[in-house]
User: What shape does this take?
Amino acid sequence: MELIVYDVAARTPVEELENRVVVVIDILRTISVMVTALHNGACGIIPVLSIEEAEERAAQFVSGFCLRGGEQGALKIPHFDLGNSPLEYSPEVVRGKTIILTTSNGTRAIRRVQVANHILIGSFLNARAAATRAYQLANEMDSDLVVLCAGMGDRFSLDDYFCAGLICRLIEALDCEHNRLDWLTVRSRRGLYMKTFVMTR
Assistant: This one.
């Protein structure tokens, strides 16, 4: 099993994600919003690529059963119900609702990884749960595991990378408990935490 970190989703070849377990990270703020909304009782979240797609999906719901949320260019979208601050997604607002979400980077990253075997979302809010479930799935499926940072457009995002490092550390700790870690090499051009783990069985 390999554990691989990609620092910018838009620059990651789609074929590198095929048949793998992928954890998508976008700290500011898509994944933080999604984790908060689900924790506060939202029924589900539908990530879409554009305002137009969000409106089309919203039209398929009975009035009052979905909310449109997100941002474009870091600005709240006019006429949408919610922006991209986790504070807006309180239990009183989202409980029992489906959120249709579009953002500049995070929802695009999620849609990019549809070729993966399993897609999980990771943030500082749910890092341990994401790491644990990703590791379980990768072991069950004998699959490689990818931690994918959304980035900002085609640029590197430090906050995503720090969270990726945390999730990798948690996965490393899980693996060490099972003595499957064989060797590791540092693969970061930036000198930050980015490793490939080869795990023996």
The longest helix spans residues 158-177. Helices lie at 30-39, 51-58, 91-94, 106-112, 127-141, 158-177. Residues 181-201 have pLDDT under 50 and may be disordered.
